[in-house]
Amino acid sequence: MYQMSYAETIEDSAYDKRGQEKEVFTLAIMQLREAKEKGPNSDEAITALTTIGRLWTFLIEDLGSDENSLPENLRADLISIGLWCVKQADKIRSGESDDFDGLIEINENIRDGLN
Question: At 100, is the secondary structure helix, strand, or coil?
Fold first, then answer.
């Protein structure tokens, strides 16, 4: 019977987690594209902005944890990006902006970096 080493298990777990994160980003991006098409006051926009807010709130909390193994500089940069995304979503939700493009582009870049 084959037994994986602890290091292989940890590596696989990290890979699985990145894959799950990539899927969630892909879903959020698809929702943002649909929201852009339907408009900032649409049900699709509410769904997309809620998804992006929840995603980044979760990630910011994880990135701020001492247990997160990413380098501190990268964690800080990702937290800054996440805060921007949450603020941009709030601006769209409140009618201060209707610019989904920035949210889409940033989240695509983050998703594409999860390899």
Answer: coil
